[in-house]
Amino acid sequence: GPSGVNQLGGLFLNGRPLPTCKRQRIIALAASGARSSDISRSLKVSNGCVSKILGRYYRTGAVGPKAVGGSKPLMATPAVVARIARLKLEQPGLFAWQIRRQLHAEGICAGSGIPSVSSINRVLRTLPSDLRLAAEPRDPRPPVSPLAAPPGPQPPPVPGSPQGCAPGPRPRSGGRSRNRNRTVFSRQQAEALEEEFQRGQYPDTATRESLAAATQLPDTTIRVWFSNRRAKWRRENKQQLEAGGAGDSPG
């Protein structure tokens, strides 16, 4: 029997592909002009699953799932991983989508064999620590202990305190640092992200890759934007429900 319930309320069997009858229903609805997000809500199947089934059908014409227990061909081969590491070592500021474009330009991978942005990010996260340290910019100055006093004249002693003791550091208000780097989106980037959010709140890998190419944003930034946008959407829905409930209550 079913082993779980997805976020749309649909039942699924963990580790097993979607039944063929439901796959055929997805393709029939898409042929009638329904959007993948509408199909997802109607059949209670995740938007990512719908997109994968339709994408494979458009590419190969196949409706049924691939062989159960099979695996995808390895795209991050040792030669590709070595080139990714070298590019990151030479240019630490490169994003995964820029590395992917460079791999394609150099012809290291075939057209369909280029690792995805997510796969390149996984390679970067699993690089050996000595490679990551070598890629990080180094400060030629010797490290300074945070407890060491800065050079220069010492402040005068505070009245009432022991002679020679400088006043202690003032406590900060709030525990968080205010120097947070926030991404500023251009109007075109914000419109592209919002338009895709209206189609589906959980974009799959292919959708995120096309968004990264269109907006020049890294995959991690796109993931964070969608997560924040879903939280905002839930807050707005909750406020509307509360406002509607307050209006219906007796005066």
UniProtKB/TrEMBL annotation:
Entries under InterPro entries matching the protein: HD, Homeobox_CS, Homeodomain-like_sf, Paired_dom, PAX_fam, WH-like_DNA-bd_sf
Keyword DNA-binding: yes
Entry keyword Transcription: yes
GO cellular component terms attached to this protein's record: nucleus
Example of a GO MF term: DNA-binding transcription factor activity, RNA polymerase II-specific
Pfam families the UniProt entry points to: Homeodomain (PF00046), PAX (PF00292)
Residue ranges the UniProt entry marks as DNA-binding: 178-237
Sequence similarity: Belongs to the paired homeobox family.
Protein name: Paired box protein Pax-6
Biological source species: Pycnonotus jocosus (Red-whiskered bulbul)
